[in-house]
Amino acid sequence: MNVNVNVNLKVKTYLLLLFLVPLLSCSSAEVKRETRTAFQLRPYQEETLPNGLRLLFIKDTSLPRLSFQMMVRAGALDEPRDLAGLNALVAELMDQGTKTKSATQIAEDFALIGAEFQANPSEDYTFLTSSGIAIYGKELVSLFADVVTQPAFSPAEIHRVKAHQLAEIQKAQDEPDSFADELLAKEVFPDHPYGYPGIGTKEGLQKIKRENILAHYGKFYRPGQAILAVVGSFDEGLVHEIRERFSRWEAGPPVPPPAVAQSESSKGTMKLISKKGLQQTQIRMGHLGIRRVDPDYLSLRAGNLILGGGFYSRLNQRVRDDLALTYGIFSSSDARADRGLFEINTASRNEKSADTIQETLAVLKDFVEKGVNDNEVTAAKTLMIGQFPSAIETVDRLATNLLILRRYGVADDYLSKYEANVNRLTTAEINDSIRRHIRPGQINTLVYADRDQVLRALEKLGPWTVEEIH
């Protein structure tokens, strides 16, 4: 199985094209275009089985292929605080044996029909996906349903997968870019599941027992917690097969949303995590962001694009192009079920670390205080609209976005009215959103570097908390 555990926070912003802040450059000249009131989405059908499983059917006969995307409302957000990594571990184990087949048999059965299985856990949900050739549709339904609804969680596989996850955690600090993301998340979300690495922590994984895995699966992997999108070439016979097979999945009681408090200090922090021998400085700056349902979601996306989401952004032009302090710098606003992360991400030469931080903060403060201008807004809106069709150009991408909208309780007309809503954004609205949600005085600055190479220069910015790792 190919499991994509989101080890760092910025990766998620690249998984789903619709939720990306576009990264391409564009001209600031105003582009005249006809404004559509609604974007025509590919037709789809939706229904709910008696056990609570929602089914989404999107037909596409252009290729003889079939795919399943099941989104389960189970993420790191749903883990107990002392069992960080539980959700990712459950996802990793899904196809490592069912009640009737071993892990080897499952892998062979998928291979025999030219199919594959993947599990992708993240903070707010887990995706279980499979795709193959349409002529083997019945076999794929049977195999996928067996993996999803009848996992065995054998002690031997649990031991093996936990050992692999622990080894990955041990290696994490040797990958400075992703490790710095983990460190910032821990700083911004100190007592919240969003602050854990997606793969978990050493302490958390060591505590996880089989009964914890069974309890997590039993609570969250239930039809009322899941939506299955069926995409591609299928007929009514296969629809009947899917209904019949998944109707056997036993329902469970409703699961209330997790009650996990988030807190934020009125003043930011400055922390240096030191490791001997690091050849450059990783710099992360951020604070709590917004929820996906925040009404400022779209206007903040536009503002962030101007700040650091595109190649011709203010941060990139000033810190990279004008001052040559870094090879690249970007910002992101990751909205989630709970408040997500506003982040600025860059790296610099050790001797330029303090200058990079100072100039970045200067750009950020100017951005918030003075706001954006009409030309920047026109360029940002043009790019957002230009990139939109690629986000839903395939049936699989459309299915992914429809599932995620349902996870966050956002109506489908976010897609159909996207262009019109972007066009309606005004410079004043965007500036209001920026001032409400970006707070330079509350920025947490995290540096991952060799203290011997950077601390003296950094101290001119103020006092630093210093921690050593080995």
Explained architecture:
There is one protein chain. The chain is an alpha/beta fold. The protein folds into two domains: 225 residues, Metalloenzyme, LuxS/M16 peptidase-like (Cytochrome Bc1 Complex, Chain A, domain 1), CATH 3.30.830; 199 residues, Metalloenzyme, LuxS/M16 peptidase-like (Cytochrome Bc1 Complex, Chain A, domain 1, 2-Layer Sandwich). The strands form two sheets. A seven-stranded mixed β-sheet has the order 1-5-6-4-7-3-2, sandwiched between helices. It has a six-stranded mixed β-sheet with strand order 10-11-9-12-8-13, with helices on both faces. A hairpin with a 4-residue loop joins strand 5 and strand 6. Helix 10 crosses helix 13. The protein is globular, with a radius of gyration of 23 Å. It starts with a strand and ends with a strand.
Spatial order of strands in the largest sheet:
1-5-6-4-7-3-2
What is the strand tally?
Answer: 13
| Whole-number tally of structural domains | 2
Low-confidence stretches: 2-35
**Count of individual helical segments:** 18
Radius of gyration: 23 Å
> What is the average of the pLDDT values?
91
Named at the architecture level, the CATH assignment of the largest domain is: 2-Layer Sandwich
Helix content: 40-55%
Question: What is the beta-strand fraction?
Answer: 15-25%
